[in-house]
Amino acid sequence: MSAHAGTVPSPDFSPREREVLASLCDGETYPSIARRLGISRHTVDTYVRRLRSKTGAVSRSQLVVAAVRCGVFDVHAPDAPADRN
């Protein structure tokens, strides 16, 4: 990942990849993401591996940075409860 600041073009994330990435940014664990989305923990891991491949991230922290840079996660958004139902 490059060290420059600002928003960069978003890789071609699927809607589910964007959802998993936003959940990771919210601090959710793989098991909690899996329960909420009705998928297995292994499927969450598959989505995370795809996200890492698309972004070049090697850690969860780098995925969060990529999400902010790509506009998937807004660190300045109001701290309101997310609609997760």
TrEMBL record:
InterPro entries: Sig_transdc_resp-reg_C-effctor, Tscrpt_reg_LuxR_C, WH-like_DNA-bd_sf
Keyword set, alphabetical order: DNA-binding, Transcription, Transcription regulation
Keyword Cell cycle: no
Pfam families, A to Z: GerE
Name of the protein this chain belongs to: HTH luxR-type domain-containing protein
One MF term in the entry's GO annotations: DNA binding
Cross-referenced SUPFAM superfamilies: C-terminal effector domain of the bipartite response regulators
Highest taxon of the lineage: Bacteria
Gene3D superfamilies listed in its UniProt record: Winged helix-like DNA-binding domain superfamily/Winged helix DNA-binding domain
